[in-house]
Design a protein that fits this description.
This protein is of the alpha+beta class. The protein is built from 16 helices and 16 strands. The two termini are about 40 Å apart.
Length: about 525
């Protein structure tokens, strides 16, 4: 180490405790640069994030961390700004020793002596690649949801009756011709309901709130541009029933087809009755003519009259036959669009939309936790268990939820812990194909000041590909999970220094164990 770097090292790290602290930090790369931008110190976090060992990097220039094809701020410019302004901060792509790229949050501060002379720089680097990739996935999920809503004319909605908060997806606003940046109150939305149908939706939502009953109704809405649309509205209560959420779908085309069939059917029946009356009239006329004619003495005039009557009957019969054929075609077409088939297809579309809405909701919940950060505080596990039991007993009454209170406390975020366990319990329920699904949740104290929380089920087990993702701690283009579930659980737990493991049960199903530190740790 040169005398200049040694002086810098001694200048900044004269305090032994401070030096030890910097060396032990693993989540951040914290190191010193001399006045020319060469690496002077290297901590454990820098080794983990950058990939270089201490002896490999000391004395090398800052530019080694910058990609050759980078279009961001150059390392020389970074140091120049830090020197002139005292510090510099940015987020940009950097290169590890193995050539892989990471997205780094970088802070560079100038170090000056008492005389104001530049001695070097401190540099703090945090790897934010995972957060960036999650945000990218969130954006892709939102785009998929929006595109699906557009293709299927579907939207989502949720009402919080405790706060009066109303959430509408862009798909719902599109159905009502409401601009996407417009926020409505519940009363303002209700003004868009057809006055004859308001009682229907009010009764359905009240039933969901008071009795916990889901609903599926058809009603009319008056859009912001004055158009009348028929929509199918499905809804269900959530949590403690203060919220009601659901999906809405445009069924105007189906209603229009039904009305056209009714009109055509009415017109055809009317025409058939008229033509049959004509046939009957001609038949009676023919009978009178025949009764009044002496067959052996038929003259030319009699033949002409009889021929005309028969022609009229023939023409009318052909008309009836044509209309009957048309009716047969319409009935055949209507059978192909049976009510059962339409309901089945509608349900499948709405179920998929509900799935995407659920993914979007998970994405929003995940994003809110990311914004909150990893603030830790003591959390009673039993309190989280109670909330989970209440939620899922209402939503899945056919599932047996077993809770084993343990009076354990962990050091984590209450919201994050609930979301992680909520994901595990829901996954255990929705993928369970047993006649009597069972999910057991328990906690126990481990040695080493840690608590284990287990979620067991009697379902088919968790696919190996999902487990491999947890083992690696990351997804790749060739190996990825079926959704956000286990990966989200992994992120929530590991941000609090916890671990997640999965094991098969001998009697069938899986055991997922989450291990978290206690407040004493």
């Amino acid at each position: 180490m040169s005398s200049e770097r040694m002086e810098l090292f001694e200048h900044v790290e004269a305090d032994l405790i401070l030096r030890e602290f910097f060396q032990e930090v693993t989540e951040y790369a914290i190191f010193l640069l001399d006045a020319d931008g060469f690496v002077a110190t290297w901590n454990e976090g820098a080794r983990r994030i950058k990939g270089y060992e201490h002896d490999e990097i000391i004395g090398r220039h800052l530019s080694v961390f910058y990609p050759d094809d980078g279009d961001g701020t150059s390392p020389e410019t970074v140091l120049s700004i830090a020197e002139s302004e005292g510090s510099y901060e940015e987020k940009g792509w950097r290169v590890r020793k193995d050539g892989s790229h990471i997205l780094a949050h970088v802070t560079v501060r100038a170090l000056n002596d008492d005389a104001g002379e530049l001695k070097g720089f401190t540099k703090i680097v945090r790897d934010v690649t995972e957060t960036y990739e999650y945000r990218q996935e969130l954006e892709r999920s939102r785009d998929r949801l929006e595109r699906t809503e557009q293709l299927a004319d579907i939207g989502g909605w949720e009402v919080d009756y405790e706060t009066g908060d109303l959430q509408l997806t862009d798909g719902t606003k599109r159905l009502a011709d409401i601009p996407p940046d417009t926020n409505l109150t519940l009363d303002e939305l209700r003004d868009h309901f057809h006055e004859d149908d308001r009682a229907i939706i009010d009764e359905a939502i009240e039933g969901a709130r008071t009795d916990g009953e889901p609903f599926d109704i058809e009603m009319r809405v008056i859009t912001a541009t004055g158009r009348t649309r028929w929509v199918q509205v499905r809804g269900e209560p959530t949590g403690d029933r203060t919220n009601v959420r659901g999906a809405v779908r445009d069924i105007s085309d189906r209603k229009e087809r039904e009305e056209r069939l009714m009109v055509l059917n009415r017109v055809l029946r009317h025409n058939l009755r008229n033509n049959l009356n004509i046939v009957s009239g001609y038949a009676r006329e023919l009978r009178r003519d025949l009764d009044g004619v002496d067959i052996p003495a038929l003259g030319d005039g009699d033949h002409e009259r009889l021929h005309e009557t028969l022609e009229n009957i023939s023409e009318t019969t052909r008309g009836i036959d044509t209309e009957l054929r048309t009716l047969d075609k319409l009935v055949d077409a209507a059978s192909r669009f049976s009510a059962e088939a339409m309901v089945s297809k509608t349900n499948r579309i709405i179920e998929n939309a509900d799935g995407l809405m659920s993914t979007g909701e998970k994405a929003r919940r995940f994003e809110s936790v990311v914004k909150e950060g990893a603030d830790r505080r003591p959390v009673r596990v039993d309190d989280v268990f109670t909330d989970l039991k209440q939620t899922y007993e209402q939503k899945y009454p056919e599932v047996e939820i077993r809770l084993e209170p343990g009076e354990q406390t962990v050091l984590a975020g209450e919201h994050s812990l609930f979301l992680a366990l909520d994901e595990l319990v829901q996954n255990a329920i929705v993928h369970n194909d047993e006649d009597c699904p069972i999910v057991a949740v328990s906690s126990r104290r481990l040695s080493g000041e840690r608590v284990a929380i287990t979620v067991e089920d009697n379902g088919p087990g968790i696919p190996r590909t999902e487990r491999e993702i947890l083992k690696r701690g990351k997804e790749t283009p060739l190996a990825h999970g079926s959704g956000m579930g286990l990966w989200t659980v992994h992120w929530f737990v590991t941000q609090f220094d916890g671990e997640v493991s999965i094991a098969d049960r001998e009697e069938g199903g899986s055991t997922v164990e989450v291990r978290l530190p206690t407040p004493e740790n």
